Amino acid sequence: MLKRIEKMDESCASVRIADASYPAPFRSGLEYSAPARGTWNIVHTGMLLPEGHEIFVCAASCLRGVVLTAAEQGTSDRFSTIAVRENNLLDGDMEQLIIDGVGDILSKLPKRPPAVLLYTSCIHHFTGCDLKLVYRRLREKYPDVDFTDCYMNPIMRKSGLTPDQLMRRQLYSLLKKQPLDEHSVNIIGNDFATLPTSELVTIIQDGGYTLREIQHCKDYQQYQQMATASLNIVYNPAAKASASALERRLGQKWLYLPLSYDYDEIVDGLNTLCDTLHLSRKDFSDRIAACEAALDKAKEVIGDTPVAIDYTLCYRPLSLARMLLRKGFNVKRVYLDSIGEEKADFEALQKEAPDLMLYATVEVKMRFLHGTETGGHGEHFLALGQKAAYFTGSDNFVNIVECGGLYGFDGIIRLAGEMEDAYRYPKDARRLIQIKGFGGGCCL
């Protein structure tokens, strides 16, 4: 068997954190997409709307991916398409195509949905399609259906709100203004419901407040009850635009309590929550002690095994790396493409762990920098996240995407347990990371 003997050139694909720049440690250019498919896309997130029906309008080649997403998720009965053809561009009937197509779909569904998420694409912006006219006509023709505008528009990825941010905003755009209940709170913007054992949840519920998340809404009527909340809580950075829009439109105040792995920051966030809800502040010393015990236990098992973290695991990979390094874990790599709001952790790690390696995930050279030999340099890693598992070639990995509902001290304790289990029990990474929208069954 032939074996590569020279070292793969990693320039532009990796950098010591001490030498990295903020907020973009890597150049922007031609991009590679790793076959770790567990993160959610706009199809999965849209399906969180209970009883909603998705309609995608775009060219057939673009439809292929979203059709497969719905099929893999088992939600084809809540998904329809309108194909844009060349004659629609030449004849200038794009608006009528959408109006007639939506009407045809609604007439053939066994039950008319209370809401439709209508996704338009790049071609509609290129051709100057009058989308305001389209939505006005649809709302006039079908007053019993709530329509919202969604977008599958990759040309918008790096200007203004990203498609992900837009999707999270539009997911709550159908909420209708109602009198606000001072004892009602929402957590918004996440793909997974926050675990009920999280301090964030227990403080709210034990304080006598009604807590809602879209994942727990069984029907469209329950979804509409989210409009009665006087406060929205956000810990996903991509959902801040959604909270701002709801404040402008419905008058709902909002708190941004970012995910963190720093004890002081967690306490500050939970204290802010207590103050906002007019509740007594809590003593979290026992929870901090439980975190320390869980991490110590995991460290005893994992030892000096190299650890790699990637950004798909959680919203704050550098904060996580910093906590694990403080506890003596051998964190060697973090896979990310930008740093975002983690500037403080980035600058701290530049001093505390200058040799920590940052690896891109979309740099084209990463096409070759994966697997145990070329990606892991012959070392066996404990991977935290699917992309870290793919690039290091490790079957010992924590299979969580986008926080998985973990938050606060409870989240740290559970993550420590997941790390211990991942070290003890290898998984079939090749099979698992190919599951599109991991955990998406929760929204069916």
UniProtKB/TrEMBL annotation:
Molecular function via GO: oxidoreductase activity
Residues in Nitrogenase/oxidoreductase component domain copies: 111-353
Gene3D superfamilies membership: Nitrogenase molybdenum iron protein domain (3.40.50.1980)
Cross-referenced InterPro entries: Nase/OxRdtase_comp1 (IPR000510)
SUPFAM superfamilies registered for this protein in UniProt: Helical backbone' metal receptor
UniProt name for this protein: Nitrogenase
Organism: Candidatus Faecivivens stercoripullorum
